[in-house]
Request: fold
Amino acid sequence: MTKRRKKALGTLLAGLLGLLFAWLQQQGYVEPAYKQAVESQPGQYRVIRVVDGDTITIDMHGTDETIRLIGVDTPETNDPRKEVQCFGSAATDFTKKLIGKNTVRLQSDPTNTNRDRYNRLLRYVYLPNNQLVNAEIIKQGYGFAYTSFPFEKLNEFKQYQKQAEENNLGLWQQCDVTSEESGQTYTNPE
Reply:
């Protein structure tokens, strides 16, 4: 057999294997390649949905897990005890847009607890480009530094909030923000 025929036969076999693999995926015998790639990267999780500006749900090894972003609080959109707060929908939309279709990497904080009182995992959330979602929400004015509990990045997040306030970004421009003992309240300006 000549080199040319061997090469043609190899190309033909590779093409047939590719078609067979695609057919097996279509029939459900093989998981899609993107899912395999995500699951083969330890610590990378697919975001199922953005609950609100500071809470997401991920697929953690086949289980839906709710993640509360450490150190950031955004205006409420889902609390049945409260009305949707000023900039709440915008904060949720910002988080959705920021995460997009990316997988995320989670990191716990050694100075914080593992879960909150609602049994949500408390985590820093990183995008594939290593951008910290928690910090970006504060930097862009879609939330504030949540200082009720200790966390390693507390001073850093307070600085981001101060800069967003000084630059009149996001909710700092659109809402009247007042402090209360339990946190911040956001109201539409009169």
Summary: Residues 3-30 form one domain. Confidence is low (pLDDT under 50) at residues 33-40. The chain is about 35% helix and 25% strand. The helical segments are 3-27, 33-39, 88-99, 133-139, 154-166, 171-174.
